[in-house]
Write a structure and sequence with these properties.
Layout lengths: L12 H11 L3 E7 L12 E6 L5 H8 L18 E6 L3 E5 L10 H16 L4 E9 L6 H12 L4 E6 L6 H14 L11 E2 L8 H9 L7
Parallel strand pairs: 2-4, 2-5, 5-6, 6-7
Antiparallel strand pairs: 1-3, 3-4
The structure holds guanosine-5'-diphosphate (GDP).
Length: about 220
């Protein structure tokens, strides 16, 4: 494919078409990882989705992959606190990270998640980028900033993706994007541009597919 470091402005019609094709292929649950010793071999490029619980992560993964219930896999009891790996035709791993920010989460749970995430983020050279989902109605919350700082410390590249932008006006969305892009200047591992999506309005889904498809290696 194209150089994955190209900017958002470089999304061409060809890349949009490749993203549409790529995400229409099969996407299968591979495994859930609770212990880092269980991670699959890092032989494919990998991207991950992170976000507060209820941010719309499952809906977005389902919309990207054209499934009604793919991400329900990650919501089945016992799988909510693990890294859930999906394979897109053996060319890309999509990792659904545990939702954070539960009001009811105990300190022990939070510290267990943080330690799993930190070890994963620091030791996974095939992890190309984390897409950090932010609810457009709420903007950046303290728990989001905590994750951003963790990603900065781990030097893991990440990009902010707004969800549920249908819930705010286009003007408010523009202001929110400007505010967040301003705040990102303090975060060294952040990609400087914010994406806006809505699964309800199918907005931004095609662009996000193209953005992610940039990480797919050309076939040998
Ligand atoms: P998760 O906990 O992050 O996986 O979140 P879900 O995908 O389960 O979504 C949480 C709630 O937000 C559900 O009620 C969804 O229907 C709703 N939701 C998700 N995406 C959107 C969106 O783009 N627009 C609107 N209006 N609601 C959404």
């Amino acid at each position: 494919m194209v150089n994955a470091s190209c900017s958002q402005n470089a999304i061409t019609p060809e890349l949009l078409e490749f993203g549409r094709w790529f995400f229409a292929q099969s996407c299968d649950f591979v495994l859930g990882v609770q212990n880092l010793s269980d991670l699959p071999v890092a032989d494919l490029p990998e991207i991950a989705f992170a976000g507060r619980s209820n941010v719309g992560k499952s809906s977005l993964i389902n919309a990207l992959t054209n499934r009604l219930d793919l991400a329900r896999t990650s919501k089945t009891p016992g799988r909510t606190q693990q890294l859930n790996f999906f394979s897109l035709i053996n060319r890309l791993y999509l990792v659904d990270m545990p939702g954070y920010g539960y009001a009811s989460a105990s300190k022990t749970q939070i510290s267990a998640w943080n330690s799993l995430l930190r070890t994963y983020l620091q030791g996974r050279p095939s992890l190309k980028r984390v897409y950090l989902l932010i609810d457009a109605r709420h903007g950046l919350k303290p728990s989001d900033i905590d994750i951003m700082k963790l990603l900065d410390v781990c030097a893991t590249s990440y990009q902010i993706v707004l969800t549920k932008v249908d819930k705010i006006t286009p003007e408010d969305c523009q202001h929110l994007i400007q505010d967040i892009e301003g705040a990102l200047q303090q975060h060294p591992a952040a990609y400087p541009y914010v994406l806006a999506t809505s699964t309800v309005k199918s907005q931004g889904i095609d662009v996000l597919r193209a953005v992610i498809a940039q990480w797919v290696e050309p076939e040998q």
